[in-house]
Each structure stands twice: as structure tokens, then as C-alpha cells.
Amino acid sequence: MTQLAAGLTVRTARLDDAAEIARIAGFVAGQSGGTPFHLPAWGAATARATGQHFAMLVAERGDAVAAILPLTTLRSRLFGTALVSTGFGVAGGPLGDDQVAQAALIEQALAIAEAEDAPTIELRGGPAPVGAGWTVDEGRYLGFVRPIAADDAAELAAIPRKQRAEVRKALAAGFEIATGRSRRDLAEHFAVYGESVRNLGTPVFPPALFREVLDAFGPEGADILTVRHGGRPVASVLSLYWRGTVYPYWGGGTRAARALRANDAMYFALMRHARDRGCTAFDFGRSKAGTGPAAFKKNWGFPPRPLAYATWTRDGAAPRDASPLNPKYRLKIAAWQRLPLAVANRVGPWIARGLG
């Protein structure tokens, strides 16, 4: 614990203490900028699944939490070491209204980076720190969120005309829609998601990551929705549910899914499913500006919103850039796309556990 001026203390949360975890989760739920990726459950689950290290920094004034900063230490032989807030999430930067407390957490993160020889800190959202070594990127990633309509007819009306026609065709295709959390659901999701990311040229995450997140968030907080065609899964998405918002997070389709419009059927079915669960907002997640996924989300009527990510790089160190848009990965991506799926799904998790 570090004692600072004005009654402020900074310490590392005790993640083996259920009362501590509940206290921090309650703080996150009470913050307007809170996300599932700020929760101890997220950081702990992703760390268990990938072998990376997770810690939660807490700033307190007396008995009250003033701010938090979740930190995942990512170590990769291919991509180096970085502290990320939060690993494997699209959000999770400093959280809390107390600016002094947030600044204290950033200083502690810098100290940890020095101690762990991490040349990079990535903050995914939250106030951008000011000081030497920090840069802010507001142009690479876009977020997409809009309300869920009151019923299917209103949902269709909310989709722009050209995309609405595609969704209508998908709804008439007679797909089987299944939701659940069973071993079958997990196996089908991994098979579909693994093929989807292989086709994009990126390695798939370990199967344990999906299982651990499902377990950590429980039946009320996470499930899998799968679209089957002729009894075979062709599209699948693992979603989080938190504070009235559904977060379709890990989703994709097989090579056949596009022609079948299975992804259109999947996301419309998820909107219906989330509405039935009491959700009122649909967070379509982040996409890189200028990419096909970003265009797909805009076509569904989701307004793009720039996301600000702050990065600190130690003097003289090369910035960590594991983005598949980095030109130096172009040939590797092309080679990965040609791998047999069984090979990609066996080797991919070893690589992806260090991407975060």
C-alpha cells in the first residue's frame, strides 16, 4: 500500500477476497464509464485462461474507493511485454471521478512497468494521462452502440434500407437459432470462431478463454448464440450482458456464412434475445476505421464513435503494435490464411494468448 497526501492510498486489490471483489464490482457498476472489462471477473478469467498476470489497482480515500485501474501484464515472445488496461478487452482504462486518484494510479502503473521491464502501457479508454512518453490515438478504433428497439418490426425499421433487405432474406432462410452455455455450445462456438479468424489471417484465442469468461460471468452475464444451417453451425457469438447492454464480443462465421447471410440472422436474433433478457442497448464493439467490419456495423445503423486509447512508451523503446493492419505482418497474415484449420486452431492459441 502506498500512502499519499490528502488521505489518498493506492494498493493492489486482494482478488482472493470475495468481499473485496464485490466491493470493486459495485464501484464499477456505479460509474457512468464502467464496462464489463473493468470488472475483476473479466481480468481474473482472462488471466486464468491465458497464463498472463492480472492485478487491480485501487485508490481509496478512507473507506471509499476513489478510482480503479485494472492491469494485465502481457508477455509474448513475438510481441514483447506490455501492461494493458484491460487485457483481452476493448475498454478498461482508469475509472473514477477523482482526478487526483486517477493520476496516482497512473504513477503506480508506471512504477510497475519499470519493475517488470515492460516498455509499453496501453490504456483502453478513460482520461488520457499527460506527461512524457504518453500519446493518444483517437483515429484507429471506432465504437458502435445504439438502443435496442421495442420489437422486431421496430428493429427492422431501424436498419437502413439496403441492409434491411439482407436481414429480411436472412430471416426467411429458416436457420436454427440456439442459445446456451453447454459444452456443445462452447465447441460449436470455437469451431466457427476459429475458422472465422483463420480466414482473416489471425490466430484464435485458447478455448479456455471462452470457457473461463462464461463461468466468471455466470448465466445472467454471458451466453453463446449459434446459427445452424442443415444441422451444422455456421455463425456463433459469445456475448456479455451487463447493466442493460448486450456486448456481442467474440463472434464470427464460417466461409459459407456470408453467402447464407448467417451473420445477419445471428445479430438480429441476438437483438431479440437480448431484448427478452431485458437489455435496452446493443454495443457492437470496436472495429478499426476503414475496415469491412466497421462498414458492416454502419450499414446496420450504428453510428461510429472514435475511441481514444492512450499509450506510454519508455524512452528509446519501440512502440508495441500487434495490429493486423501493421504492414510488417502482411505476409504472415497471408500465410496464416492458407493454413489447414486444424493446424491453425492448434498453434493459434499459443500465439494469441500474448496478443491481448
UniProtKB/TrEMBL annotation:
<dbReference type="Pfam" id="PF13480">
    <property type="entry name" value="Acetyltransf_6"/>
</dbReference>
<protein>
    <submittedName>
        <fullName>FemAB family PEP-CTERM system-associated protein</fullName>
    </submittedName>
</protein>
<dbReference type="InterPro" id="IPR050644">
    <property type="entry name" value="PG_Glycine_Bridge_Synth"/>
</dbReference>
<dbReference type="InterPro" id="IPR038740">
    <property type="entry name" value="BioF2-like_GNAT_dom"/>
</dbReference>
<dbReference type="InterPro" id="IPR017469">
    <property type="entry name" value="PEP-CTERM_FemAB-rel"/>
</dbReference>
<dbReference type="InterPro" id="IPR016181">
    <property type="entry name" value="Acyl_CoA_acyltransferase"/>
</dbReference>
<feature type="domain" description="BioF2-like acetyltransferase">
    <location>
        <begin position="164"/>
        <end position="297"/>
    </location>
</feature>
